[in-house]
């Protein structure tokens, strides 16, 4: 059996469980949407950032929204690979841009689940890999994996890049890291993982590792850096232009000061939007899981660096606090401690935990798309 078919055969149970989880969540959302008189397709393909991506796919860059308070939200904040692929799909298939975005995201989510399985299997074994993929599909905010968003695409590139690093395929890892960097701003975490893995390889071999690790390291940040520099050139500030665009969205890296102020104000004002509370809880749990991952599980260096950079960007960035759980969605290694704990638990206890997570995931997905008044 070819190697790729053998890996797909091993991953089949995990992929089946993941598909069942997301299909059930989508069905629950669709039933509720029809109940309240809304279109499930519109919710998945046109909500929040999905609308920006499909507009870029249809018309290119150049849209800016100006607000009375002086804010200016430019579509240059959105990285180009996903809308470019959406445009390509819509030009080949007789579907609208929103539908093309959904098809692309669903395929990317499946590819990501396959890559996540292989990475986890190599680190912790097959049972933990199956459970981790299921947990990833049952996260409270996993509804994003079935929306026209970029997280599935970036996670797919990230998972396969990490697998390439674990199997010492340096050029493939660098190419996938470059594509991840063209997908999302926090895709730079994949390039950091490649650079860390190459540095470790060179140190172990005292610099005599051949040309492939060097080439992979050089290729890894190209995607992210090229778009940042392109936006900078377009805005007349090569190094600062992209970050000025992010400022217009109130997004900046301030080592968590803005997030702490938001939490302080939220606590002081009393009852608030449920989504903000969930964002705080999910982010706090993510930080705790990273500590367990680093101190207890001790995964390979590229996996640890990739996850750590994602957590750092999420916690240290200000802006849309309610979006922090979504920024952590590609950080699938955070689930490794929980997956290992469930594999060691009694079957009855594990089933109860999974059932509880499923109920939370399906219910929260309905909430954020049909009831919440905040951005996702």
TrEMBL record:
Q: What is its main location?
A: endoplasmic reticulum
Q: Respond yes or no to whether keyword NADP is given for this record.
A: no
**Domain Glycosyltransferase RgtA/B/C/D-like: start-end pairs:** 88-227
Q: Which terms under GO biological process does the entry name?
A: GPI anchor biosynthetic process
Sorted alphabetically, the keyword list is: Endoplasmic reticulum, Glycosyltransferase, GPI-anchor biosynthesis, Membrane, Transferase, Transmembrane, Transmembrane helix
Tell me which InterPro entries the record gives. Answer: PIG-V/Gpi18, RgtA/B/C-like
List localization entries. Endoplasmic reticulum membrane
Q: Which domain of life is it from?
A: Bacteria
Listed GO cellular component terms? membrane
Please give the name of this protein. Answer: Membrane protein
């Amino acid at each position: 059996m070819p190697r790729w078919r053998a890996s797909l055969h091993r991953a089949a149970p995990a992929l089946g469980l993941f598909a069942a989880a997301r299909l059930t969540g989508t069905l629950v959302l669709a039933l509720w949407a029809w109940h309240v008189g809304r279109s499930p397709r519109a919710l998945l393909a046109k909500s929040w950032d999905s609308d920006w991506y499909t507009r870029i796919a249809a018309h290119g860059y150049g849209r800016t929204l100006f607000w009375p308070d002086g804010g200016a939200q430019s579509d240059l904040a959105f990285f180009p690979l996903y809308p470019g692929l959406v445009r390509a799909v819509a030009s080949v298939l007789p579907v609208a841009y929103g539908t093309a975005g959904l098809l692309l995201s669903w395929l990317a989510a499946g590819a990501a689940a396959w890559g996540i399985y292989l990475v986890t299997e190599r680190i912790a074994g097959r049972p933990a890999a199956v459970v981790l993929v299921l947990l990833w599909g049952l996260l409270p905010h996993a509804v994003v994996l079935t929306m026209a968003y970029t997280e599935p695409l970036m996670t797919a590139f990230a998972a396969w890049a990490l697998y390439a690093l674990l199997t010492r395929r340096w050029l493939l890892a660098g190419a996938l890291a470059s594509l991840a960097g063209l997908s999302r701003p926090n895709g730079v975490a994949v390039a950091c993982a490649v650079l860390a893995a190459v540095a470790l390889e060179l140190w172990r071999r005292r610099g005599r590792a051949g040309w492939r690790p060097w080439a992979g390291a050089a290729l890894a940040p190209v995607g992210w850096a090229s778009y940042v520099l392109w936006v900078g050139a377009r805005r007349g500030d090569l190094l600062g232009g992209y970050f000025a665009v992010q400022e217009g969205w109130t997004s900046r890296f301030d080592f968590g000061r803005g997030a702490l102020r938001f939490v302080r104000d939220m606590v002081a004002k009393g009852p608030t939007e449920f989504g903000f509370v969930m964002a705080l809880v999910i982010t706090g749990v993510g930080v705790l899981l990273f500590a367990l991952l680093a101190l207890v599980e001790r995964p390979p260096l590229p996996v640890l660096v990739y996850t750590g950079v994602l957590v750092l960007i999420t916690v240290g960035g200000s802006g849309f606090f309610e979006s922090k759980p979504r920024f952590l969605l590609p950080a699938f290694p955070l689930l490794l401690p929980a997956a290992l704990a469930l594999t060691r638990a009694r079957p009855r206890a594990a089933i109860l935990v999974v059932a509880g997570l499923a109920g939370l995931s399906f219910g929260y997905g309905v909430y954020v798309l049909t009831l919440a008044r905040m951005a996702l």
